[in-house]
Amino acid sequence: MVNSHRYYPYPVLSEVSDDYHDSSFLANVEYSYSQDFLEFSFKADTDNKGLFDLIDSDHAVFAFHMECPQTSYRRVVTFKGTEHETRIRDNRLSGKLQVCPFIVATKPIVEYSNDKFNSDYQGFKFNLEAGSVLAIASCYEFTIQKEKDELSKIPSIFYITKHQDKNFKGFDITYPQDRIGVLLGEKEYQQYRVLNNNALIKNTLITFLILPALAQVLKIFKSEDPVVLEQYSGYRWFKSIQYRADQLDIDLAEIDMPEILLAQTLLNYPVLSSLFELADVLLLQDSGSYGEEF
Amino acid sequence: MSTTTFLPLLTENRITEMKIELDKGVLLEKFQNPTNDWLKEFFEDDPFRETNIAYTPFSLHMEAERPQDSEAMNIRLVYGNLMHLSDSQASDERLWAALCLGPFYSYVQYRWGVSSEQKIRDHFFFNFGPRRSVIRNAISRLWWIGRLSYEETLADPFAYSDYLSKHADFIFHVFELNLSNNKQLVRTLMEILLEFEDNNINVNTNHLGALMKYFNVLGGTYILDMMPTETLQEKLRLRLHRIVKEE
What we know:
The complex is a heterodimer of chains A (294) and B (247).
Chain A lengths: L24 E10 L2 E10 L2 H8 L3 E9 L4 E7 L3 E7 L5 E11 L3 E4 L13 E3 L4 E4 L3 E5 L13 E5 L8 E4 L5 E5 L1 H11 L5 H20 L4 H8 L2 H12 L11 H8 L3 H18 L7
Parallel strand pairs in A: 11-13
Antiparallel strand pairs in A: 1-2, 2-5, 3-4, 3-6, 6-9, 6-10, 7-8, 12-13
Helix pairs in contact in A: 3-6, 3-7
Chain B lengths: L4 E5 L2 H13 L3 H4 L6 H6 L5 E7 L15 H11 L11 H9 L3 H8 L4 H8 L5 H7 L1 H12 L9 H8 L3 H6 L7 H16 L6 H17 L7 H18 L1
Antiparallel strand pairs in B: 1-2
């Protein structure tokens, strides 16, 4: 999280200034993936009656300023209520995204004053223009993690996302036409995102989530029901797994091997490399290279 | 006759390998070769992979005596031919490094020269933070100036990039500021600059530099994206008049 604070020629409510007393402006933003979109949910609230009345009378709004320096994306999302959702196509964003919450004047405000102004400002009145910042909350910075390489000709057949059911725990697997999805419960997904930023354990995460997912879908290849086989054989993930098996000279329909072993063969025995990866991480931790981050 | 093919990509590993060799000081002479044939030898393989993005190959103009005078025309060519790239694809070094080292190798040499490792790092690769990098890389620069200034409501959608390319340093002043990520803010600024030109009031690079400083200060005080266009235009117009007058 980044704090944004600048000096303004009039009082601005923020955590880092004492321009107002007994007042707060709290804001929160979260995002999740949904197919080719990033879905953002915003929350904002203030207990300052003067500011709340300005919003209520359409003189101000909650405004979340979003900026992605890598893709030059810049947008302000505004709303009046305390919650709002919006979505952005994921090909508009890459790398870091900074989101800063404000309360902003939407029209000129003549002789603005507020009961909760710091005593230094008591009795002062300010003429504000549309676009003037009235309150600031802490900024958020996200690193947008994409499940696919947008330049690559061979997109991954797996994606990892949040389960739609907010009460869901653990992980589940889905396999619509394009890719195999690993759906994580809300808490699992949050923790996955934190860990996914750490390149040192990326393979371990993949093994941990993708190995069982692959093992599950491999059962389909052994199906004796022609309707099932016909349904799935046109899917991209099906063709991709079939191609990999052909490379290894494996007949997925006929081979007599438990799916969990077969999945390891197709993924080139990832458990061993993951264990090495974890051993390296522990070694780093022992040597103190990670400091407090680990 | 040109046929459709796929844009090239240079993998991250290969970009890193080249940057390491550049730091060692052993690649400068190779970059000064008139063709990029040496890349195959360097990687002992075809240097590029194909992306999933189709395009029709095109050439860039390299006839202007002063290479910078070719820029307006080349913005039209690069953005016009590659308008179908997403912003995210267009912010990926792997694509632009491949275009600089592949089909537009001679153009980068012509436009920026290859007299030092620094020039090679800046203009063939990404060598700064995200924003500066795309404006310094020889080909992504042409795309992004097009992307940020293309205005389809104008009779000539490239009128703004033509104007900016005519004036030395104008591109640097306008596009290295985050404010120019908002196309409406770019449009507001451009309308003022063209208004001054129409009225025969000369705006030079110092004037624009001072105006952009003021623009940046305004951006720190207001959420400019939410300020009515007319209000912002009036503020910029008044300030630019004052800047020009004061000189």
